[in-house]
Each structure stands twice: as C-alpha cells, then as structure tokens.
Amino acid sequence: MRPTIILNKVDLIPKQELAEKLFQLKNRFPGIETIFTSTVNNEGINELKKHIVRDKTYCFLGSSGVGKSSIINKLIGDNAIKTANISSYSNRGKHVTAHRQMYFLENGGIVVDNPGMREVGMAGSGQGIDTFFHEITALAQKCKYTDCTHTHEPGCEVMSAVKSGKLEKDKYGNYITLKKEAKYYELDDIGKKEKDRKFGKFLKKAKKVLKDLEV
After folding, report:
1. pLDDT by residue, tens only, the chain of 215 residues
2. pTM for the full model?
3. 109 and 30 both lie in a single domain
4. Residues 130, 135, 136, 138: what is their CA dihedral angle, to the nearest 10 degrees?
5. How many angstroms separate the CA atoms of 29 and 6, rounded?
6. What is the pLDDT of residue 210?
7. Which of 38, 79, 137, 185 could disulfide-link to 123, CB 3.0 to 4.6 Å?
8. What's the pLDDT tens digit per position in 26-80?
9. What is the domain count for the chain?
10. Angle at the Cα of 24 (from 20 to 26), degrees rounded to 5?
11. Residues 54, 100 within the same domain
12. What does each C-alpha distance from 2 to 30, 83, 101, 102, 153 come to in angstroms?
C-alpha cells in the first residue's frame, strides 16, 4: 500500500499558509507525496488523475465533509455521487456518504469512496509508534528509569533532547499524544473484555436460575 496525502479545498487558504503546511508535511513525512486539490477551480485534479492507473484500486479516507466525494466526481467526470454544500452553521463540509462505493475511471483505475471517519483509534499500535518515532525510542534507551514516561521524570534523555533543541518539540508532542491515546484504547479493550466476561457469568447464572425454576 502506498499512501498519498491530499490537501483539499486549497482555494480557502492563503498561498503562504499552504506553503507552510507543505513544509511541515514534507518534514514530518519524508517520501510521501502531497497533492493540493480544489474542486472549485480544479487545481490538482489532473495531477491526481495521473496517480490512478489501470487495474489498481485507490481508497479515499478522511474526515466527514473534507470533499472526498467531490474529488471522485471530478475524477470520473460525472456528478454520480451526491454531495452537500458547506454548512452555514459550522462553515464546514457536511457528511453525505453513508456507505462504501466503488467507481471505475475511463483509464481502468478503480476508486473507492468511504464514509467520513468520525474518530480514529490507536488500538494495538504501541509498537508501531515506537518504530515510527525511532529517534525517540533510541533516546529512551538512555533514560534513568526503564518505565520513564518522558513527561516529568529526572534523568529523561527524551526531555533533555527537547530542551536542547536536538528533538523537535512538535514531534515530541505528537509522540506523547499518540502514546497516551494508544494506552487509552488498550485499557479500553481490556475493559471491554472484562465487561464481556461479567456478562457471560451473568448469563450462565441466569440460565441456572431458570433451570431451577423449571424443576
């Protein structure tokens, strides 16, 4: 799988701010291509079309209202997908797509429109976070405490690197946020299992009571 970042609705943002966002993305995700698009003035649509080749499938993922369906309409050259205008209340796009739908482009490429994501979880991704933030993982090996959270402990090499400027503050902040989120979802999964276990015991006890009543 090869990801590509699409920044849509670029007609709504000043060029200078757009250039800053591109710099941040290139710095954070080197090697991943970024495409700017706008379905209002068709910016980037032809460039995006070049990425879609015959017999390959491309999934569009993103939050509700970011314009995934509008982009696909431009790619297939038809208003086949129902879209909605910007909400006057929130000034943001509205959620319209309610199910996955596959579309075929003239060149034989396949695109999939997905419902907007309301929430993205980090379940089971702790090791992946450590791999992605490998420089922080390497620094963590030198921390004074093996269970260091890199948030307040004395002798923390990660915090020391942030203070000295060796480690980017934004990257450190993202690492801590993702770690906390992964831990939350991990605990949440354990809680669900415990709840399922208790419910199973309840059913077993209820069946026994019913059986005794029948006797």
Report:
1. 889 999 999 999 999 999 998 998 888 888 899 999 999 999 999 999 999 999 999 998 888 888 888 899 999 887 665 554 544 434 444 445 456 788 888 889 999 887 766 555 555 556 778 888 889 999 999 999 999 999 999 999 999 999 999 999 888 998 988 888 777 777 665 666 776 677 677 667 766 766 665 65
2. 0.54
3. yes
4. 90
5. 13
6. 64
7. 185
8. 888 888 999 999 999 999 999 999 999 999 999 988 888 888 888 999 998 876 6
9. 2
10. 115
11. yes
12. 13, 27, 20, 19, 39
Instruction: Check whether residue 12 and residue 108 sit in a common domain.
Output: yes
d(CA 215, CA 212): 5
CA 202 – CA 53 distance, rounded (Å): 55
| Token reading at 197 | 């276990």
- Show Cβ contacts of residue 125 under 8 Å, excluding neighbours closer than 6 positions: 178, 182
Which is it for the CA torsion 197, 202, 205, 210, positive or negative? Answer: negative
Both 87 and 167 in one domain: the answer is no
Same domain, yes or no: 146 and 75? no
CATH of residue 177 = 1.10.40.50
Q: In terms of domains, do 106 and 131 share one?
A: no
pLDDT for 98 equals 52
